[in-house]
Structures are given as C-alpha cells and as structure tokens.
C-alpha cells in the first residue's frame, strides 16, 4: 500500500454551498482515510453531487473548508486536479467521438505521447469490454457501455482519489457488478474512492465508512454495520405454500426469534419478522436458519424466503423525524420509480434485499 | 502487491482473453476475473506522465474539434453553401447597379464578402461551446490539470480550419466569376491569413456568450444582433462615401471596415500598413478583453 504522509484523503469542515437562497450543502464535515471507499448515501437532491463537485474543483464553496490530500480546493485547485478523477452522474464522454477517440484525447490531455495514448486507450477499452465498440461513436453506446467508457477515462492515469457520482444509477445488474469489480480493483491498488449512491446495498457492499446526507447535512456517519444496527437488524420475509399455515408460522417465528416483531403482509401467504438486536449480517442469518429449521420441523412449507437489510428508507426514518412520505426519492422511490433501470436485488419490494434465490450473492 | 502463491496467470498477457472478458466479468464478483486482472495491470500508480504543455493541450482540443467535423460533416454546410450563396446573391444583385457590371463589382466585393461570411461563421463557436456545456464532458475537462484556456483555444483552432475552408470556397467561386486579384497568390494567402487571424480573435466574444447564455437559441439571437450591423454597416457592399455622415462615423470605427480594407489591399497588391496594424491591434484587444472574460466565466461555471 502507498503511504500518504499528507493526512486524510479528504477533509471538509463546515462546507457550505448556496444556490440562490437554498443551501444545497449546509455545513458538511467529512474525513476520508486514504485507501478506503467512502460512501455518501442520500436521496436525490440531498446535496451529494454538490459536495463531489466542490471537492473536484468544479464548484467553489460558499463557506467552510475542503482539502484533498492536504491541498485546499479553492486556493490550490491545480494540485487537487492532478490527483483526482471524476465520473459524473451523467456520463461525461463526448458523444460525437468514438470510444477510442475519447480515450486518446484524454490520454493526450493527461500527458501521454501520441503512440502511448493510442496503446493505452486500446488496452483500457479491452479491459472494460469495449474492444469491439472501440470505433463506434459513444452516442451509439448503451447506458452501461457509456458508464464503463466514462470510468475507463477516469482511470487512464490512475488517480489517487476517484469520485464516482452515482456510478450505478440506471445500470442493469451485470453492468452494476462490473462497476463494483472495478471499484474493488482500484482500491486494492491504493486509490481512495468517494462514492455517492442512493442504494444502501451498494454502500454496504463497497464502502468502509458511510455518511448519510439529507438536505445538505450529514445526519449519520459510521461503518455500514453501525448504521444498520442503529435501525434494527433487518427482516426475514417469508412466503408460504399454504395460507392456512400462516398463523402457525407466525407463532413459531415469535417463539424462535425473541423480540422479533412478526407482521402479516397484505399478501395472504406472506409474513415478515423484523429482527432486533445485533445488526451484523451473520447474526441475522443465524436467526433465519433457526427459524427455517423450526418451520420445516413443524411441517410448514416455505415457498420463498429472503433476508432483508434495513432499507435506506428505514435508515432515514430512524435518523430523521420525517414522515414516510417526505423521504421521497429515498429507498422507497428507488430506481424503478424514477424510470431508471433497476439494480437486481430487492427492487420488487422497497427493501434492499439479499434473496437466497440470487445465485452469486 | 506481489502474490507469489497465486496460481492464476495474472502476469501472462493474454490478448485472446479480451473476447471472453465481458461474459466473465460481473458474475464472479471480486474474484480476479480476466477483466479485473487486465485492469490491475493497467493501473498506473507511479510514474504518471508530466502534464502536457499549454500548446499540446490546445492542440489536443483542436484535434477534438477536427474529429467533430469528421463525424458530423453537415456542420460544414455553413462554411460552404452559405458563402457560395452570399457571393452569388450580392454579385448579381448589386453588380449592375453599383459598379456597372458584375465583373467590375466582384473585384471590389469579393474580399468583403469573404470577410462577411467568415465573420458571420464565428457565431457557431458560441453555439458549440454552449452545446458542450450542457453535456457532462465539460466537467471532465475542467477537472483536468491542464492550461485552463486550452479547451477554448482548441475550439478556436478547429474553427480556424472552418474559416480557412470558407475563405477558399469563396475564393474559388470568385475566380470562376471573374475575380482577378492583382496581389497574386501571395497577396491572396496573406489576405486570408489576416482574415482567419482576426476571426480567431473575434470568436472569443462568442466563447464568452456561449458560457454566459443559457440556451443555444439565445446565443444565436445575440450573435445576429451583433453580426448583422457589424457586417452590413461597413464598407463590404458599398463605398462609405455614399452614406450619410452619421453612418460614416460608425462605419469608419467598425473593426470590420478596417479588416476589409486591409484584406482588399493585400489581395489587390496595394496593402495599407495602417489598416493592417489596426487589425492586429483590434485582434489583440479582443483576445485580451473577451479572452479574460471567457476564462473568468469558465472558471466560475
């Protein structure tokens, strides 16, 4: 691992950005350790992109301080620019140019000589599975291809700090997994990643620490486990083969899972047990295994089963006094509601769910 | 970072593996898929190349502008069809009335109509800048550690090509219609060079408006408001002596008048140093003022 003698990768103190009268970012404090993935989680309009843009020197803060590897983003923007890359929410590739041309242009602008730029562009396109599309204009790329091209552009000179602003919003499951693989690979090579997302699941899988941001403020910060345990340990969702057995199943679950709150869903064969206590995934899985064993022993036929984490919506509800309806754009709205493509897991319900049916979880 | 116990062929370059990358990636999670292995080899954490010089950064953006012309050749219509139309229209519309014959008139008109067409073409710079800003690609350019004006200079280098193309088209049409420049090839080339140089400087007005205004339509609107009086109220179509005094006053300070006088002079082999210096000074002032304003807007955006 590389040494970073200059302290935290990112440090902001009381960061403020106003657009007219509204404070899009209203006093954000962040500290990101080098070599880690830091998740910034929040609904649309929470101020995530604005924070990223200020850190990437695209927007000038109206108050507070922000330093990237010890360099002030306002006083020393060029030093910051030399060490960061940004992949924005909306693919920042030139649509008129081909994949190759996009990358050669950027490689040239990053200081590579012509032949070297060509070689590097070709190798990057291959590594991102865009080899066959290299000579097509980016406007003919699918959403996932565009995003990959965009990320490839950000990695041409591997940055010390990579900003990924909602990198998987609107991507299909396979593209999303590819993006996740890329994040893991670059972090393993020593790059720090700041990732914004609307999905708790994504932050959970990738981030070492998460800041939950709402209306321009950080309302919670911690490891994924800390955040989730602050709102309970998740839930077990069951669907039974036979409606008749639901009452029996409920009784068994309440007996096996002390403290759990068991609800009957509107679907006559479904019920949900909300777990309490230790939020670690292992504990929840242990509870689930015992519950399933009990049900099987009692002859209750379970046709479908899933273990759900607390949803982003639940995290928000727990962290704010907001009414459910006012947290629009959070977990409940999800990608489906905004018309984007949907990540695979858990979008049939409003929960970030890890179902047992998913093959390679 | 080395993994001596690793049995996978992480270091073996495998060009054939590229084809299977896409199918393997994403299904195996983080376990070194071919794609992530290849990526790992590509990451540069040490020895980044030095930053490009202002010149090579600008040149790279100029290359981008040329690529855009290659991919969207329709945009060359405004530097080909439009100038041809203008030349034909004004030659035959005014030729008989103003100079007795079209072949007489074109000796006077052609350098001017060339300047008019090219100066009018400069407004597309603003449209292109405005279009780009709307898209995310500008954000990426602005996070690069490069000479800040490079993207703008790149636009203008691409535009300089378009100006040259328009000039050559008009010259060819003119020669066909009977334009016989006394300055010979040297004078003609010098005239075109001066025109392209001035237009490069003049375009900074449009980079500024491209950054300032919200939509492409408003950029077009403002461009027309500026360009029509600037090109028509000049010595392009008629000699200023025929105009009322107050109009002459404007025409005589209009930079386009001096530009046309200088280009005409060069092409007809009777170059007036006064007008040429005037064009150089005007160009320097345009770059200093509007270049500065452009960069201020660009950094604030």
From TrEMBL, chain A:
It is a peripheral membrane protein. One of its GO terms (cellular component) is plasma membrane. InterPro entries: AAA+_ATPase, ABC_transporter-like_ATP-bd, ABC_transporter-like_CS, ABC_transporter_ATP-binding, DrrA, P-loop_NTPase. GO terms for molecular function: ABC-type xenobiotic transporter activity; ATP binding; ATP hydrolysis activity. Residues 10-240 form the ABC transporter domain. PROSITE patterns: ABC_TRANSPORTER_1, ABC_TRANSPORTER_2. It holds the Pfam family ABC_tran. Residues 352-361 have a biased composition (Polar residues). The keyword Cell membrane applies. Its EC number is 7.6.2.2. Keywords: Antibiotic resistance, ATP-binding, Cell membrane, Membrane, Nucleotide-binding, Translocase, Transport. It is an enzyme of class 7 (translocase). Coiled coil: none annotated. It is found in: Cell membrane. Residues 326-361 are annotated as: Disordered. Belongs to the ABC transporter superfamily. Drug exporter-1 (DrugE1) (TC 3.A.1.105) family. This is ABC-type xenobiotic transporter.
UniProtKB/TrEMBL annotation, chain B:
Belongs to the ABC-2 integral membrane protein family. GO terms for molecular function: ABC-type transporter activity. This is Transport permease protein. It is found in: Cell membrane; Membrane. Residues 12-34 have a biased composition (Low complexity). The keyword Transport applies. One of its GO terms (cellular component) is ATP-binding cassette (ABC) transporter complex. Residues 1-34 are annotated as: Disordered. The lineage of its organism: Bacteria, Bacillati, Actinomycetota, Actinomycetes, Kitasatosporales. Residues 74-301 form the ABC transmembrane type-2 domain. Residues 1-11 have a biased composition (Basic and acidic residues). PROSITE patterns: ABC_TM2. It comes from the Bacteria. The chain crosses the membrane at residues 76-99, 105-131, 152-179, 185-206, 218-238, 276-298. Keywords: Antibiotic resistance, Cell membrane, Membrane, Transmembrane, Transmembrane helix, Transport. The keyword Transport applies. One of its GO terms (biological process) is response to antibiotic. It is a multi-pass membrane protein.
């Amino acid at each position: 691992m590389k040494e970073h003698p200059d302290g935290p990768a990112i440090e902001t103190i009381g960061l403020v950005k106003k657009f007219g009268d509204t404070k899009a970012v209203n006093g954000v404090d962040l500290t990101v350790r080098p070599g880690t993935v830091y998740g910034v989680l929040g609904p649309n309009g929470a101020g995530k992109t604005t924070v990223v843009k200020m850190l990437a020197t695209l927007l000038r803060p109206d108050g507070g301080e922000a330093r990237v590897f010890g360099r002030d983003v306002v006083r020393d923007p060029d030093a910051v620019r030399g060490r960061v890359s940004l992949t924005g929410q909306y693919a920042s590739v030139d649509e008129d140019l081909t994949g190759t041309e996009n990358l050669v242009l950027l490689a040239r602008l990053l200081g590579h000589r012509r032949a070297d730029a060509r070689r590097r562009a070709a190798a990057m396109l291959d590594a991102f599975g865009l080899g066959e599309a290299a000579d097509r204009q980016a406007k003919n790329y699918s959403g996932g291809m565009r995003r990959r091209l965009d990320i490839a552009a950000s990695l041409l000179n591997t940055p010390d700090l990579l900003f990924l602003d909602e990198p998987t919003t609107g991507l299909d499951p396979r593209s999303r997994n590819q993006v996740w693989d890329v994040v893991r690979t670059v972090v393993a090579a020593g790059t720090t990643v700041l990732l914004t997302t609307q999905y708790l699941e994504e932050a959970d899988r990738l981030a070492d620490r998460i800041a939950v941001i709402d209306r321009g403020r950080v309302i919670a910060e911690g490891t994924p486990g800390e955040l989730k345990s602050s709102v309970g340990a998740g839930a077990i969702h069951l669907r039974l083969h036979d409606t008749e057995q639901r009452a029996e199943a409920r009784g068994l679950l309440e007996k096996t899972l002390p403290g759990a709150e068991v609800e009957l869903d509107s679907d006559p064969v479904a019920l949900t047990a909300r777990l309490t206590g230790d939020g670690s995934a292992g504990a929840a899985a242990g509870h689930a295994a015992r519950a399933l064993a009990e049900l099987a022993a009692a002859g209750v036929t379970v046709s479908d089963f899933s273990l759900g984490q607390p949803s982003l919506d639940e995290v928000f509800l727990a962290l704010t006094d907001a009414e459910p309806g006012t947290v629009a754009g959070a977990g409940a709205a999800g990608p489906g509601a905004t018309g984007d493509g949907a990540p695979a897991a858990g979008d049939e319900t409003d929960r970030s769910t890890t179902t047992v049916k998913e093959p390679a979880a | 970072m080395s993994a001596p116990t690793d049995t996978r062929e992480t270091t073996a370059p495998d060009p054939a593996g590229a084809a299977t990358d896409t199918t393997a990636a994403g299904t195996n999670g983080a376990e070194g898929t071919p794609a992530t292995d290849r990526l790992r080899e590509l990451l540069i954490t040490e020895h980044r190349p030095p930053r490009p010089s202002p010149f090579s950064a600008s040149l790279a953006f100029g290359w981008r502008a040329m690529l855009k012309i290659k991919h969207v050749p329709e945009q060359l219509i405004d530097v080909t069809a439009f100038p041809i139309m203008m030349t034909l229209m004004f030659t035959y519309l005014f030729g008989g009335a103003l100079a007795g014959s079209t072949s007489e008139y074109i000796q006077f008109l052609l350098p001017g109509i060339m300047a008019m067409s090219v100066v009018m073409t400069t407004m597309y710079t603003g449209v292109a800048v405005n279009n780009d800003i709307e898209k995310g690609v500008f954000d990426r350019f602005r996070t690069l550690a490069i000479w800040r004006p490079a993207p703008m200079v790149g636009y203008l280098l691409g535009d300089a090509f378009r100006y040259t193309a328009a000039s050559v088209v008009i010259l060819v049409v003119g020669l066909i219609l009977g334009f016989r420049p006394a300055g010979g090839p040297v004078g003609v080339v010098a005239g075109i060079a001066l025109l392209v140089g001035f237009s490069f400087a003049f375009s900074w007005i449009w980079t500024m408006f491209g950054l300032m205004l919200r939509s492409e339509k408003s950029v077009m609107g403002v461009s027309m408001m500026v360009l029509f009086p600037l090109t028509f109220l000049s010595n392009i179509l008629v000699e200023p002596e025929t105009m009322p005094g107050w109009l002459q006053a404007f025409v005589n300070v209009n930079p386009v008048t001096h530009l046309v006088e200088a280009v005409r002079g060069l092409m007809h082999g009777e170059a007036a140093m006064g007008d040429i210096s005037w064009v150089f000074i005007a160009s320097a002032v345009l770059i200093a003022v509007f270049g500065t304003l452009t960069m201020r807007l660009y950094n604030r955006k």
